[in-house]
Amino acid sequence: MSAPTSLASAWRARVLAAPDHVALSHRGRRWSAAELDADAGALAAALAGRGVGPGDRVALHLQNVPAFPLALLALWRLGAVGVLANPMYRDRELHHLLADSGAVGVITAASDVEALRSAAASTAVGWWLGVADDDPELTDVVAAHAGAVVPEHPVGPDDLAMLTYTSGTTGPPKGAMNTHANVLATVERFGAWIELTPDDVVYAAAPLFHITGAVASAALALVGGATLALSGRFDPADAVTTIEAEGATFTIASITAFHAIEQVAWAGRGHLASLRAVYTGGAPVPQASLDRFRDRFGIAIHNVYGMTESTSAVVAVPLGVAAPVDPLSGAVAIGRALPGVGIEVVTDAGSPAAPDEPGELVLSGSQVVPGYWRNPEATARTMPEGRLHTGDVVVADADGWIYLVDRLKDQINVSGYKVWPREVEDVLYEHPAVHEAAVVGRPDDYRGEAVVAHVVLAAGRTATPRELIAHTRTRLAAYKAPREVHLVAELPKTATGKIRRDDLRA
Ligand code: AMP
Asked: Is any ligand 1 atom within 6 A of the Cβ of residue 485?
């Protein structure tokens, strides 16, 4: 049998191969592949009844509930496209997504429908489908169309599976066009990397509305033949309980999520013992965090790097391998390129970097999206000729390990000396009283920019700004040590757990 060229056909192959195997679980409720397929078929009929057809965009404004994978499977069957919208988005943010994507309908929490209706003013949205809190699996809609048959629309590898919005560095969010071939490539490569089998239970800790949740959890499990375990919006104590109850074997989440799990006082090794592969990506990973989690839970968290525009994971630490640390920058390796991923490191002068020389990471290959939705200028700027300019500064060593030094735009310039915030944050994390740290540059008349740290202290710990500055001074060149440390109750974060350095700068 030839390899499937669409997500719908890959899903079909899985259903036929093992119809009774559990495909989805949510708080004790389980769906076999055949049951989930029947429900997705009924939802597809309901959506077709509302006029959804091939190429149409439908916004999913949902937490990690069963309606999410159901909707994706239903849309893919119709040849339609899921527009992933952060369910925390309110009026203005949602309006931009609906208007830009040309979505024909919205699937959201039933309790949000009335409040959000105005977000669809002067857009193509013709209907809203509400998902009730006590019915996150759309039982009524599915029952009303049970047994209805909608023919599977033939879909090609270059057709769109999802539009995933990314804020990037400037301007309003842009819709990355993740094709069926893009998603299938990630599922195949990352699935092989983590040695995924049908026995695996993938706990979706990352939000499904973000690329990593959608692809490296949902599509990975659904199409990869494993079980997808959901438990709504991420909550650390709930995550621990679900991992244990479902016997989760794999999870991927931001480092913030693992920091939050560390704060669950009662959680211990036994609760997480079923996990055999644990990955973190999306934001810099301090070595101190990896050490702390391993000492507490006996679990090695592996780094993985990806972007919305690279359809999630493209560089990752091999399973069971401890990532090396770059002797120069102190960064933990993000990993090695997945087989088939095109990697270049390009210097400021535009030439290929030598081993150990920093440069911008440029990606190519079948995981890179063909462009941004209806935005040829941004496409030409960010991915000319299919080469995705990531804006991330990396070094690659002679053995193929890749280290992310920092974001280009986050570099701080102190009297001409370049300071990478990540390096300063790593040192702050080594202090036992530091729970979270974020370092930014502040304009400074004398030095150009000054290094400023924002720190959240660990529960029950104390430290003064002066102490923390002294801690960094003994470990870093003087110009890198923060001039100021601000103790704060929390740090501004994106929905996916990235610390918003932009907000801190403002
Ligand atoms: P997004 O498109 O929201 O997934 O964000 C992608 C960006 O997240 C990348 O360009 C990196 O700056 C950052 N990122 C992703 N993975 C990692 C990682 N493992 N370590 C550090 N930064 C990361």
From this structure: no
The answer to whether the Cα torsion of 249, 24, 367, 349 is positive or negative is negative
Residue in the structure block whose two tokens are 């959201």:
108
Q: Which of 165, 182, 208, 305 gets mutated to test ligand 1 (max ligand atoms within 8 A of its CB)?
A: 305
Q: Which domains, ranges and CATH numbers included, belong to the chain?
A: 7-141+150-396 (3.40.50.12780), 411-505 (3.30.300.30)
Contacts of residue 121, Cβ cutoff 8 Å, sequence gap at least 6: 95
pLDDT tens digits along 66-101: 999 999 999 999 999 999 999 988 888 899 999 999
How far, in Å, CA of 219 to CA of 228, rounded?
A: 9
Single out the residue of 122, 131, 78 nearest to residue 103, CA to CA. Answer: 122
Amino acid, single-letter form, for residue 471: H
DSSP string, 31-42: EEHHHHHHHHHH
C-alpha–C-alpha distance, residues 298 and 425, integer Å? 24
**CB-based contacts of 34: which residues, under 8 Å, 6+ apart?**
15, 19, 20
